[in-house]
């Protein structure tokens, strides 16, 4: 089975967010399962990549990756070099797994796959949910109707990462089959580690009696950080620090900092820039509770990553993975709550007043469902199902 993964950006361009990490982990997991996997992408976000390495296959963590030169350093990502190579690349693929909604490169990739008769599984990653459409709807609706929808209707499948995302697609009326495939976690780097916990807490200046709250990832309106100042002010008599880790996309991080200072909580705030993926395990181990009050979260990688390291979570019910937690996670994972400040304040106050619970059961639960191996095996089943369906449709017109 020859699988071609295609997306405008790829590892190690971590600044582009969760999809880069999720796709690279999936590709590495597939390669470990013996699947012939190839990635085509661009050098967007990777200015240090030598020019002589562009346009030729490279090995990255066991995966064959070809970085094509992006036409421009800023703006929408396009690559004439990639487009020129598509006929040759498609001839070597049995199936294309694409991650490129709203991306100009996604259109020629899908068209090339259709021309060569290669089925396409398109990862949506929340891009077609109501929250996404509300942001810049005057541009997205016509673009979707004219460019995206005609191709999505011809795709072999739509990849969603949660039941929440699957439900959100109903309003679009697409008949294309949907496949639920969660994001994989690299549990080799994400596991409970007391030595890392001690090292990072010491480095951050966290005392033993203090609880470390964590906000991890890009700071954006959709993350719902504006809920937290009032919530944390209600808990100011408790002993805690808040670590804000990641880049500020739209001023949401600065607004949170300002609101905390206005409430006399500025001295409790710690900040770190975006860290490489291999360093996040130490942060999760150091933290006691991850806060994610999102307005919308397609999946919520940070939730699973935190739990894998023994850090409990408090998340909104608008987070994709919330459905999995509510349906079967051990009770020690933390809590899923609606975005109401009083509800969050009440729960946090109770959490501060209780000894820290062990999250071992939740950590084991995560390993069974979200490891690279588990998700890669599920992806292979999806690919086989698509290829089998396609084979049968050719025999029985």
Descriptive notes:
With 397 residues, this protein is of the alpha/beta class. It folds into two domains: 2-184 and 371-395, Rossmann fold (3-Layer(aba) Sandwich), CATH 3.40.50; 194-369, Rossmann fold (3-Layer(aba) Sandwich). The chain has helices at residues 18-32, 80-90, 106-116, 130-134, 137-152, 163-168, 194-204, 228-233, 252-262, 280-286, 301-308, 322-328, 341-353, 360-370, 372-395; strands at residues 2-6, 36-42, 57-60, 63-68, 95-98, 120-123, 157-160, 178-180, 211-216, 240-245, 269-272, 289-292, 312-316, 334-337. α14 (360-370) runs parallel beside α15 (372-395). The radius of gyration is 22 Å and the shape is globular. The chain starts with a strand and ends with a helix. The mean pLDDT is 94.
- What is the correct CATH architecture of the largest domain? 3-Layer(aba) Sandwich
Unreliable segments of 5+ consecutive residues: none
Helix count? 15
Please write the string of helix (H) and strand (E) elements: EHEEEHEHEHHEHEHEHEHEHEHEHEHHH
CATH topology of the largest domain: Rossmann fold
User: Helix/strand-derived class?
Assistant: alpha/beta
The CATH superfamily of the largest domain bears the name Glycogen Phosphorylase B
User: What is the share of helical residues?
Assistant: 40-55%
Could you give the order of strands across the largest sheet? 3-4-2-1-5-6-7-8
Return Rg in Å: 22 Å
Tally the structural domains: 2
**Span between N and C termini?**
24 Å
Beta content comes to 15-25%
**How is the biggest beta sheet arranged?**
8 strands, mixed
Average pLDDT score: 94
